[in-house]
Amino acid sequence: MNCRAVRKHFVDLLDVACDTQEHEALMAHLHTCPQCTNEFAAMKRAMEGVRPKHRIGASPALMENVLKEVMESAALMDTPARTGRRTRLWLPIFAAPLAAALLLAASFGYWLIQSGGYKPLSAFNVLGRAAHAMQGLQSVHIEAQMRTIPGDNFELILLDQDMVPIELWRGFGEPPQWRVETSGRVVVCDGNTSLLWIKESNVASEAPPTAGHIGWLAPLMDVEHILDSELQLAEEQGSTVTVQEVIGPDGAPELLVSVEALAQGDYTNDWMLNKSISDSDNLRVYRLDAETLWLKGLQVYVHTDKIDVLVFETDNIEYNAEFPDTLFALELPDDVSWLDSQRRTDVPAEARNLTPEETARVFLEACSREDWDTVQVFYPVTPIPELFKKHLGGMQLVSLGTPFQSGQFPGWFVPYEIRLKNGEVKKHNLTVRNDNAAGIYQVDGGI
Amino acid sequence: MSSATFAERVAVEPEVTPSAGQDRWEGAWPRTREEFSRFVDVFQDRLVWFAFRKLGNRSEAEEAVQEVFLRAYRHQDARGNVARVSSYLYRMASNACNDVLRKRGRAALTLDLSKAENIADPRAQAGEHVAALDELKRIETLLARLPRRQAEAVRLRILDELSFAEIAEVLGCSLGTAKSRFRHGLSKLQALLELEREN
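Predict the joint structure of the above. Result:
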């Protein structure tokens, strides 16, 4: 080896373990070449120059705390369906050696790869068994946690938020009824009408059951068709499905159905990336009882550049419980405000043909003047909630940015900066869309 | 007979990482309680040090690392296919530290060591803590003068004692790029250290 070749490999000699085949040759050269020796020694001195002599290590309490939590988890895994505590049910950590890993490419023609003596299953087999097993289903009650803001829409996930409790009830009569609730928002469908109430702002909306009030949770509550939906998505959107047969924490065999899905929108502007399940690359892991194929749990992880973030996790699923008659009805406060964007068509002529940016400007300037009649044209809530007036009334519009689109949202985002009455400066993106009865851009969020 | 002096021969010995004698985790993601226990044992000191140098506070570092281990345990099922456990774990730890920094409301995601005393951990042994912080402050002052990516490669190799293969995975780049960033960073560091000595 000549000097040039040796110097190219200096960095290999600085790796944690240098066991390359060239090692001997490199060292032999170094021991005979003062120039290379000096150069390499200088590199090592530089490393020593920033190598810490004092290091902080873990305290004994760390191991103790971790193992204590793990033991607690293990105890919970042995105890099905406790109320009031999160049960992490589907970690086949102690059962793994018994598990037969059956991998499936999701595409319809593939078979599960057999191992451990299990019969191969196709996705269709699984689906067929599940559909059969779900017959006779009367109701389901799901307790879960979701990483979101309690009062915001049920599509929204925010990776830096804490998990918040969410509950879902569904009756499988004809017509089907459901209720979805967090501490800040509730949607009730009595079979004919879907009624949404946002608790803090005291705004309600009434719409047909298909209006999308419950977002991506709709197919989750459709528990007898989850696999059907997922396999259809696999075909339409290129997601992949993997099925593993494992031994569950209670010793019963389970099927883990894992769906790897890709974000579905255009993220040239990535504002919406990772803000909903379908706006993220995500992993959905369903647990099914291997005998009945009833859904036992779901975890959803969003893949980020660095780690996977758990954004949804079921705590408990109860089937065929009897629900009180009042569950699918909602008594609203007398002073509730109503969102009626899908009914109102009587808008002033000057409101028509405005661009997203013009809409944002007119709307925010109207807030600034406390001209609530104009505000109501673009924010069709009657009456305008007091909380809204208190928050935005009298504020100053500092600037507007260039509108953009992101992800699957059908409207536009208009960046704005305002100064509130209390002096606080707020920067956000106003969302406007025109797929409403009036056909004009109206404010949909970002306030 | 070699023409190099004894001192030179010592200097040119290949790198011996101080923690080289310690256990390293070569296996897959732990699947049993026993494996998990060893997994914690192998990684706890390294991850706490990694988190400490990012956060400047021992109890916050331990809390972040505890959360990383618990996530690793709870969601091991989703990580069954992780190719290199150690680098994946460092990425989890890095993210956990970023969460802590975000909660502190800092705009930057790296530690401003000039403020570290303000967040010093009262439970930590004062001498150990202060010495480590002082030394880190000096090192970070030097590394702050390198291009960001080169500095991070140098930190991961020298401060965290990761291999170049691990560094490549933590940084999400190729092995060649990781080595190149380190080499260029080290070269600049040499110049800075010489300048420091001259002054």
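Chain A has three domains: 3-48, 96-328, 343-445.
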